[in-house]
Amino acid sequence: MTNALLIESIGELTTNDEANGGRLRDAAVVVEDDRIAWVGATDRAPAADERLDAGGRAVLPGWVDSHTHMIFAGDRTAEFEARMSGETYAAGGINVTVEATRAASDAELETNLKRLVAEANRGGTTTLETKTGYGLTVADEVRAAEIAGRHVDAVTFLGAHVIPSGKDPTEYLDLVTGPMLDAVAPHVSAVDVFCESGAFDEEASRRVLASARAAGLSRRVHGNQLGHGPGALLAVEYGARSVDHLGFLDDADVAAIADSWSSWDGGSGHPGTVATVLPACDLSTRMPLAPARRLRDAGAVLAIASNCNPGTSYTSSMGFCVATAVLQMGLTIQDAVRAATMGGAIALGMYEDGWCDPRGIAQPAVGAIRPGARADLQLLDAPSVTHLAYRPGMPLTVATWRAGEYVVSPWSSSDV
Ligand SMILES: N=CN[C@@H](CCC(=O)O)C(=O)O
Ligand SMILES: [Zn+2]
Question: How far is the CA of 17 from the centre of ligand 1 (A)?
């Protein structure tokens, strides 16, 4: 049965919809079941079963967090403390979490994931990707993918995260690109590779990306995180949906990522490789901030993601990431908000209708507030998205809807 909710008197509505310039004042939205049914001026809004007066506050799409690692056990507080005392981050720390994750029960992993998803929802996140990569045996990677698929919108296979302790690199690469991929493939939509010294070099990364393509899965790359390397160029060459981290880029990398968008017209056409920046990770590892502004000015499509994981970025706060991207990376507020919503949706292939969730069910588009899109919205206790950076660290998200249902509902409609 159709049930219509009208959210009216929205002071500033961020739509990410070119049809109305991406932003409306004194706006209203009608949500019908799980979708946006109507967007326009409050004084022209149609009747609805239920009304919510936003009182001049801002409404924007829920965050689309396109890069997290939420299937793990344990934490790495000691490693973080050492880093804050001057140690450098090294990929080897991943194996500490691999050991803890293998030792955990299914229930422990699922409980921890649910805790992290709930935290993310409270901060306004309505779409989540997460990766395997702390199991690194066939059984542990399949287990991670299955558990993740019950709670997030997209699952990525990251068997090529690091060579597990005690394993021969050549044998492990054969496993990751062969039997492990075959076993995990039914549960995931993409394959990722950590292309970095200490993890997978160019030749190994090529094999991972080629095996993903042969299996009909999307490609993603962790690239240029700890130093300059081939990750960004490989991502573009293999048609990856995104290349993530990007602290160390030269002019050729920036140009290649930007050029990958030359045949995309904003909706249809072949999408290029999204440049995903991870501001919280750059801060937590004390690495150079990714050159988000330079990438944007060159014409790249940007995403901002949390990279929530116990090693390099133990936060799911997209609001914090957006504020950091504005205050430290030089993005405008509008660019940062767009990157954390529409950018993430493009990186996940979810900006158009019909993408499939981990259960294989077709879903409406996310990342924009436009008729037909999934009704994923957040209400800020602020008159505009500018306050996300103007008042950094404040918990401004006060209500969140996912597919038309309240995920976070601190106010009843009569309080607002
Ligand atoms: N760089 C590779 N993977 C994670 C870190 C994982 C860890 O240290 O546990 C990242 O994105 O930063
Ligand atoms: Zn990551």
Answer: 33
Position 267 scores a pLDDT of 66
CA distances from 265 to 12, 18, 268, 271 (A): 26, 12, 6, 9
Distance CA 147, CA 357 (A): 14
Check whether 387 is labelled as a binding-site residue. Answer: no
Residues within 5 Å of ion ligand 2 by Cβ?
307
Query: Quick one: tokens of 246?
Result: 């990007």
Mean pLDDT of 292-318: 98
Instruction: Give the number of the atom of ligand 1 that is nearest the alpha carbon of residue 281.
Output: 12
Ligand-binding annotation for 76, yes or no, is yes
Report d(CA 149, CA 78) in Å as an integer: 30
The pTM assigned to this predicted structure is 0.97
**Top-level CATH class of 63-356?**
alpha beta
Could you give the C-alpha distances from 161 to 91, 204, 219, 237, 323, in angstroms and in order? 9, 12, 14, 20, 29
CB of 94 sitting under 6 A from ligand 1: yes
- Report which ligand 1 atom has the smallest distance to the Cα of 94: 9
CA of 197 to the centre of ligand 1 (A): 13
Tell how far the Cα of 379 is from the centroid of ligand 1, in angstroms.
31
pLDDT digits (tens, 9 = 90+) for 242-291: 999 999 999 999 999 999 999 887 766 678 999 999 999 999 999 999 99
Q: Domain residue spans in the chain?
A: 4-61+367-408, 63-356
What six digits make up the tokens of 134? 């702390």
Arch. (CATH architecture) of 4-61+367-408: Roll (2.30)
CA 347 to centroid of ligand 2, rounded, Å: 14
Average pLDDT, the chain: 96
